[in-house]
């Protein structure tokens, strides 16, 4: 009770006024949880409103074309979330008569729904007494109880889940789980938390032993691959351009991009121009090739993309080229969308 009671009291007094907390509708809770994976609330909130406006129910989302879903998701990143969201909406609308599963085990069967999201929906919407464990929860529990287990290790999730379950008050699953997530987001933040105003500091092991900055322990480092992209922006005799849909596995599946020339290293401008002039994807010879941007470093979780945009102009008509205003309607990775917004009138 030293932990859960003051934590819940703090939550009830300090919780943010978030739109998905207005009710326990599983559609809005599910939508918010998927959006907020790898995304801060401030960044995700406008997207939540856009989706609710465009797709007020799960059936509206299910009936939408994928390109509309991806276009509205544009900028949130981790686009597999959007594709899984759409697939799950179809499953719920067409196979489950529009009704969400009402328990943790059945929620886990939904595409894109893992342990954390299933636990969040089950506890918030249905009161099921099952704990949530995410980055915020790892941090709160490891600091308060002084746990030095590496959170990236194989047994960490089971250990922290068991600890959270042991302190979950009967009949308070929704409040307790949301309190832990909110406390980690607002009070027990990763760097320089204000422990002097913390309602849990009296019994917090990390605070009382000077280990706040050392916990939680995470030893595993993410291996980052560098890739070098040259995007070729065609400008033909009518001012039209060319885009392709990414259909292979990997990043940005089903999003659009300009013809791509990828190199193993960041080659010089002269070397890049020579490669572009001989690019096999074109059925024309460029009249001029112009570098439009300096190198943009776009950081993904496991990849750093070093991106340059080149204008490839020709005084002929290019087969398959499309009007630029039409191209703007396609869903793009945010780095390409930003380029179009800045460089295309």
TrEMBL record:
Its cofactor is [4Fe-4S] cluster. It is an enzyme of class 3 (hydrolase). CDD domains: ENDO3c (cd00056), NUDIX_DNA_Glycosylase_C-MutY (cd03431). It comes from the Bacteria. Keywords: 4Fe-4S, DNA damage, DNA repair, Glycosidase, Hydrolase, Iron, Iron-sulfur, Metal-binding. Residues 35-186 form the HhH-GPD domain. Transmembrane segments: none annotated. It catalyses: Hydrolyzes free adenine bases from 7,8-dihydro-8-oxoguanine:adenine mismatched double-stranded DNA, leaving an apurinic site. Its EC number is 3.2.2.31. Binds 1 [4Fe-4S] cluster. It holds the Pfam family HhH-GPD. InterPro entries: A/G_AdeGlyc_MutY (IPR005760), DNA_glycosylase (IPR011257), HhH-GPD_domain (IPR003265), HhH_base_excis_C (IPR023170), HhH_motif (IPR000445), MIG/MutY (IPR044298), MutY_C (IPR029119), NUDIX_hydrolase-like_dom_sf (IPR015797). Adenine glycosylase active on G-A mispairs. MutY also corrects error-prone DNA synthesis past GO lesions which are due to the oxidatively damaged form of guanine: 7,8-dihydro-8-oxoguanine (8-oxo-dGTP). Belongs to the Nth/MutY family. This is Adenine DNA glycosylase.
């Amino acid at each position: 009770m030293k932990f859960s009671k003051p934590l819940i009291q703090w939550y009830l007094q300090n919780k943010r006024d978030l739109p998905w907390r207005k009710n326990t509708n599983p559609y809005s809770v599910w939508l918010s949880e998927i959006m907020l994976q790898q995304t801060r609330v401030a960044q995700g909130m406008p997207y939540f409103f856009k989706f609710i406006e465009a797709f007020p129910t799960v059936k509206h989302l299910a009936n939408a074309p994928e390109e509309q879903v991806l276009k509205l998701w544009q900028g949130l990143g981790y686009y597999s979330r959007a594709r899984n969201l759409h697939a799950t909406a179809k499953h719920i609308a067409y196979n489950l008569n529009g009704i969400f599963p009402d328990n943790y085990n059945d929620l886990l069967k939904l595409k894109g729904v893992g342990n954390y999201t299933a636990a969040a929906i089950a506890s918030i919407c249905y009161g099921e007494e099952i704990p949530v464990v995410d980055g915020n929860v790892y941090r709160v529990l490891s600091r308060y109880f002084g746990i030095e287990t590496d959170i990236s290790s194989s047994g960490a999730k089971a250990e922290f889940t068991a600890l959270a379950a042991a302190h979950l008050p009967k009949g308070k699953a929704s409040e307790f789980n949301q309190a832990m997530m909110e406390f980690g987001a607002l009070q027990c933040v990763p760097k320089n938390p204000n422990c002097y105003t913390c309602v849990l500091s009296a019994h917090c092991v990390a605070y009382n032993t000077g280990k706040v900055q050392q916990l939680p322990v995470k030893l595993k480092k993410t291996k980052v691959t560098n890739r070098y992209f040259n995007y070729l922006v065609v400008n033909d005799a009518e001012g039209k351009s060319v885009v392709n849909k990414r259909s292979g596995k990997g990043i940005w599946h089903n999003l659009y991009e300009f013809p791509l020339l990828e190199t193993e290293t960041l080659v010089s401008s002269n070397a890049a121009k020579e490669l572009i002039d001989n690019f096999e994807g074109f059925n024309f010879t460029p009249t001029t090739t112009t570098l439009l941007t300096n190198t943009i470093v776009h950081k993904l979780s496991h990849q750093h993309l070093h991106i340059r945009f080149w204008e490839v102009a020709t005084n002929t008509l290019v087969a398959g080229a499309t009007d630029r205003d039409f191209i703007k309607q396609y869903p793009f990775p945010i780095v390409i969308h930003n380029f179009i917004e800045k460089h295309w009138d």
